[in-house]
Amino acid sequence: MSALPRPQMRGLLNSHLKKHFAIGVVLAIAGAAGVKFFIYDWRKAKYAEFYRTYDVQKDFERMRELGVFQSVRPLSESGGDE
To answer: What angle do CA 38, 42, 45 make, to 5 degrees?
Structure first.
């Protein structure tokens, strides 16, 4: 009959903390990398695409015709003589 191994009585918490701290660090780095690549970089690419195709003058004319501005009358209302 073989004897059972003796349980670890000293340093048990310390050994578990080392293991779980390492696991936590790895998961935190993986989570941060995932957020950066899948959310921030995707969002930056969307903004870059929007501003690459954005025409300020065309947007101004659209808002002008809708009557958004108080200081600029729409061309249809002013007769186009501006």
So the answer is: 160
**CA distances (Å), origin 55, targets 52, 59, 70:** 9, 6, 22
Q: Are the beta carbons of 59 and 66 closer than 8 angstroms?
A: no
Q: Which two tokens stand for residue 36?
A: 């950066």
Beta strand extents in 1-82 (DSSP E only): none
Q: What is the pLDDT of residue 78?
A: 64
10 φψ region: left (φ > 0), alpha (ψ -120 to 50), beta (else): beta
C-alpha span between 67 and 75 (Å, rounded) = 10
Task: Please choose, from the candidates 23, 20, 4, 22, the residue with its C-alpha nearest in 3D space to the C-alpha of residue 12.
Answer: 20
Residue 45 binned pLDDT confidence (cut-offs 50, 70, 90): very high
**What sign for the dihedral angle of Cα 47, 51, 55, 57?**
positive
C-alpha span between 78 and 82 (Å, rounded): 8
